[in-house]
């Protein structure tokens, strides 16, 4: 049986991660496309500076909470939770070796002296962002699946304790 804190943490941290990345993909990214480049680059740089510690902490907590869920779960739910953890780790890897290096480039850009391939670089950043968002979202769905499966299994065990089935009669 999983404790409420294990279930709660496993739902909370991957959910926040998926929500934060999802908000960025649905709102911030498209807002970036609507503003002048100097505004985009200034805001992008400021956002990444503020987001860095928050998102790293959130990714770490999401990995730990999904690993704990996997360790404390049984059978199929263990593999589902471990897969969620793997996807959270994948979102970190994509961020660290995909988005972060591009963020470092963007910090140095000036609107009057952009690299010739800046649109390709921005497109690559967006592709990495959608990839990490997808990983985080699927991880969250897997956590929901694992937790809901543990709740139904816990309910069956609780009902069996409250209403034990009668012992078969022996002739």
TrEMBL record:
So where does this one cross the membrane? Answer: 12-32, 52-71, 78-98, 130-151
Protein keywords:
Membrane, Transmembrane, Transmembrane helix
Q: Does the keyword Transmembrane helix apply?
A: yes
What highest taxon heads this organism's lineage?
Bacteria
InterPro entries found in the cross-reference section = Anthrone_oxy
Q: Which Pfam families match?
A: Anthrone_oxy
Q: Does the keyword Transmembrane apply?
A: yes
| The protein's name | Putative membrane protein
